[in-house]
UniProtKB/TrEMBL annotation:
InterPro entries: Bact_Solute-Bind_Prot2 (IPR050555), ChvE-like (IPR049784), Peripla_BP_I (IPR028082), SBP_2_dom (IPR025997). One of its GO terms (molecular function) is carbohydrate binding. This is Multiple sugar transport system substrate-binding protein. GO terms for cellular component: outer membrane-bounded periplasmic space. PANTHER family: D-XYLOSE-BINDING PERIPLASMIC PROTEIN (PTHR30036).
Length: 380
């Protein structure tokens, strides 16, 4: 059905093109695919920002793997600015991209662009973040985002001694004091991470084992716009001032992303945490960004959740190739990701929690980082 609709759309474009008679061409007749050599096909890759290592790693991995498969690649970053991302995608559509791979800044802001893509017969694959409120999302490649949240909450409990590595109850009985951070409310993933984490923490909050001293337990209260490190640092400073001015200390902080973790850790360090007399609270994370892996190695950050961007890129390429060959990619989840208009068929990848002892076996032995990268806290 997809191929048929695409053919109709391309046909309509051709008619329009002829009618325009001498107007500027669209550059390649976007959306063409089956039967064409990969070298004649362009994949538009729209990434949110270069200020976070993780998206640079994603962009590089996707570009390299698409190029290795023979495709042309138009890779753009949008500086976390919604109008910039909209413009870049508009440009990809008008210049004749054959497929779009999009990691949205604001999951609800791209309906117009996606409609234009649909009208031009261009398949759209949402990358890592679901695009919401649009029927024109054909596939979604991501990690198991709910499980990311579950893993973060378990890592928080383990770091505070409430849980052993095998999930059994740890030596610490509580009550423990924590604060909760969440991601950006315009990113659908933030809700999955928070809900996953709360599926573990809520019963413990309810029975008094875990206490959120600030009382800020809703995702709206815990949110961090654009996942920004500085915003998280500011909120942690405010929490310390408002809720810990009585000499008490948090035992742990749930953080959904390494950039947020670094903001939280900076606030804690500035308040004197991280000494034998005032140990650093357990701080979780996500993405295994190299700066945070070093902090874990140095015993500052407790853990992160590793999402192998090489695997995500690989799945994105598999999905792109399926569409460009005129078929549809194979989903392993067809129920979870309702984008407000439809359930988007998805391919979910597993995640892995990384504590200090896991850095060598999981991140270095797999070639994700070198031991030197970890020691330096940056790549290359
Ligand atoms: C989310 C993504 C996380 C993290 C965060 C901030 O959408 O799933 O892994 O990267 O954005 O960039």
């Amino acid at each position: 059905m997809f191929t048929r609709m695409r053919t109709v759309a391309v046909g309509a474009l051709l008619v329009l093109g002829l009618a325009a008679c001498g107007g500027e061409g669209a550059g390649g007749g976007g959306g063409a695919g089956a039967g064409e050599a990969p070298g004649d096909l362009t994949v538009g890759v729209s990434m949110p920002t270069q200020t976070s290592e993780r998206w640079i790693a994603d962009g590089n991995a996707v570009r390299d793997q698409l190029t290795a498969a023979g495709y042309q690649v138009d890779l753009q970053y949008a500086n976390d600015d919604i109008p910039t991302q909209s413009q870049q995608i508009d440009q990809m559509v008008t210049s004749g991209a054959d497929l779009l791979l999009v990691a949205a800044i604001d999951g609800t802001a791209l309906s117009g662009q996606l409609q234009a893509a649909k009208d031009a017969g261009i398949p759209v694959v949402a990358y890592d973040r679901l695009i919401r409120e649009s029927p024109n999302v054909d596939f979604y490649v991501t990690f198991d985002n709910f499980q990311v949240g579950v893993a973060q909450a378990n890592a928080l409990l383990r770091g505070m001694g409430l849980q052993n590595a095998d999930g059994s109850p740890g030596p610490e009985r509580g009550p423990v004091v924590v604060e909760l951070f969440a991601g950006s409310l315009d990113d659908n993933n933030a809700f999955y991470f928070f809900d996953g984490a709360m599926s573990v923490l809520k019963p413990l909050i309810d029975d008094g084992t875990v206490r959120v001293k600030s009382g800020q337990t809703t995702i709206e209260q815990a949110a961090t716009l654009r996942w920004a490190q500085e915003t998280a640092q500011k909120r942690m400073e405010d929490l310390l001032t408002s809720s810990y001015n009585d000499g008490s200390s948090p035992d742990g902080v749930l953080s959904p992303y390494d950039g947020i973790s670094r903001g939280v850790l900076t606030a804690l360090q500035n308040a004197g945490f991280g000494t034998p007399a005032k140990p650093m609270p357990t701080v979780t994370g996500q993405d295994a960004e190299i700066a945070s892996v070093k902090l874990i190695d140095d015993g500052v950050q407790s853990s992160t959740v590793f999402k192998d961007t090489r695997q995500l890129a690989e799945q994105a390429v598999v999905a792109a190739k399926a569409f460009l060959d005129g078929g549809t990619p194979e989903a392993n989840d067809t129920t979870t990701y309702d984008n407000g208009v439809k359930v988007v068929p998805s391919y979910l990848l597993p995640v892995r929690t990384v504590f200090k002892a896991d850095i060598a076996p999981v991140l270095v032995d797999s070639g994700y980082y070198t031991a030197e990268d970890v020691a330096r806290g940056r790549q290359g």
